[in-house]
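Re-run with default settings, no changes from the original entry. Doing this only to confirm the output is reproducible before filing.
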Amino acid sequence: MNLPLTKKNILLGVTGGIAAYKSAELVRGLIKKNAVVRVAMTESAARFVTPLTFEVLSQNRVYMDMWEGDPKEIDHVTVAGESDVFIIAPATANTIGKISHGLADNLLTNLFLAFKGPVMICPSMNSNMYLNPAVQENLQILRERNTHLMEPDFGELACGDEGIGRMPDPDNIIQALECLLKKTGELSGKKVMITAGPTREFSDPVRFLSNPSSGKMGYALAEAAVARGAEVTLISGPSQLPKPAGSQVIHTVSADEMNHAVIDHIEGMDIAIMAAAVSDYKPASCQHEKIKKNREKLSMDLELTPDILDGLGKRNNGLFLVGFAAETGDLIENMKDKMLRKNCSLMVGNLVNSSHGGFGSDNNEIVIMGRGNGQVDKLPRMTKRQAAEKIFDRIVEEIKQ
């Protein structure tokens, strides 16, 4: 069986950070996967690891100088055109700033502009630098241009501080790269609808019933779907998250608004993933003026909001429907019951009253349950982006059956 990296031409960009030593291990790991690796370095990177190291490991020439090489060929055009994927690891704040703004003052940044295939960036720097708004804005620009970003790890940094900013282990980068190459175009031609975030049910102009959902899981699902080639419609409740690159985003506030948006856009969808945390109840009436605090107790009549998942399940005509179950106990039984009642193809569940992750967290510990074969996958704690990939792995597997 042909493995994802076999005979793939990998272009590795190495920039001037202390994590450049990990890039040598990355080259070694890629070679073991039968990939063809060529390395492009900045001058600063050569202060940490010599070009000779990469030449020996890759058995290929290392590219550094714009003005060296065959005068009949333009290196940055030729090398870019011959490569299947471009990784920059480590990617410093300086290089991230340049490539996000189209600046090309060295060979590596020229390669980035000339390359037309998938690009993976592995930021690596001090925590304060990584979290600086300027760096985060530059990273968001790259996300919106469908550049694949691998989040840095949390841990001890070269400066002695502890925080986010460590370059991921080479094995993890290789695994992410294999997933990228394997899944690119996997959902081409498929239309995917995803709901995300909370809903707000107002009792007066300034107060509402809601929940702590941030929308991170739904937004991660949208990013994963786009990366696999799907046409994605994201229907989002109130959220501060940036728009996932490549998605059509429809903003809603209440459960009624979200329900109408789902009904208006469900026609022609192949997959619907209901990841939003929809409020089950809403005030029976919304006061036009702010309710004054002039009594010790206040009673409020509540009524049910639309059950969006149930509505889709009842009209399910070939739609692959995925539901979410956020529970505080008896997770498996509640998931199974909900999946059957709502006529879902797949159910994703998690506990929200523990350290397993959930509302507002960057991580999640999920269980995936299928209706077709009844298989239950209990997954370890991972980032929500990683969980999104696992969910789509299962969706693709179920659809193929």
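The domain at 191-400 is CATH 3.40.50.10300 (Rossmann fold). The chain has two domains: 9-183, 191-400.
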